[in-house]
Amino acid sequence: MKRQLGCVVILFAALAAGCSVGSTGPVPAGAPASGLQAGPVSHFARLYFVGSYGIQAVLREVDAPVTPQQALDLLLKGPATAEQARGLITEWPAVHGRPTTQAADGAVDLYLPVSVADMTGGDLGLSQIICTAANADIPGGKHPPDVDVRVYEPGEPTAWTVRCNAAGTVIPNALARKSLAPGRLPVRGHPVRA
User: Fold this and answer.
1) In DSSP terms, which residues pair with 150 in a beta bridge?
2) pLDDT averages per 10-residue partition of the chain, 194 residues
3) What local confidence, expressed as pLDDT, does residue 24 receive?
4) Which of 21, 52, 119, 181 has the smallest number of CB atoms closer than 10 Å to its CB?
5) Is 149 helix (H, G, I), strand (E, B) or coil?
């Protein structure tokens, strides 16, 4: 029993000696700890191209947030090599000219170079530019599905207003129907001619 008691006393003495704080004072140890270093911020433009399953969004890395016009200019250059390899194309033919935009608070004014009735290539080309413009950097802080895109056709006195939902589908803005000229209600993002 004395032997066990002696071992316990030696064990406690060793533990007590190991837990004491020395009297050396502060010791310099280098630079203070710092967190993760922030790298450059990445920005992306969301462009809409056409694939085998309809409209598809792609992200392009850019230096800074892009305006609707800058996004359309990127779109009109066509899909990049890697995007083409995935089967993506554009339905906006170069012969239609260049659509232009003007950003407003929570909205985009989109000016078409030709009327929708004179366009060839189906609805997808028009959907591409509407959704690309709606997903650019627009004043007002609205999410892209809440951005009104007011589409102006040459020779038409009024615009028709649509939105682009998260799936890349162009839909009429229900609130904008009241402001449209008679006979100009958009159906699937396009006006119906009377």
Assistant:
1) 109, 161
2) 55 52 61 61 92 94 96 96 96 86 96 87 87 96 95 93 93 59 42 40
3) 62
4) 21
5) strand
Pairing mode, strands 107-111 and 148-152? parallel
Tell me which amino acid residue 108 is. V
3-state DSSP: the chain helix, strand, coil percent, rounded to 5?
30, 25, 45
Check residue 194 and give its pLDDT: 34
Q: Radius of gyration (Cα) for the chain, nearest Å?
A: 31
User: Which one, of 99, 102, 176, lies nearest residue 139 by Cα?
Assistant: 102
Q: Give the pairing type, strands 170-172 and 148-152.
A: unpaired
What are φ and ψ of residue 17, in 5° steps? -70, -35
- Cα gap 93→118, rounded to integer Å: 12
Rounded CA separation 124/116 (Å): 12
Q: What is the DSSP string of 12-38?
A: HHHHHHHTPPPS------SSPP--PPP
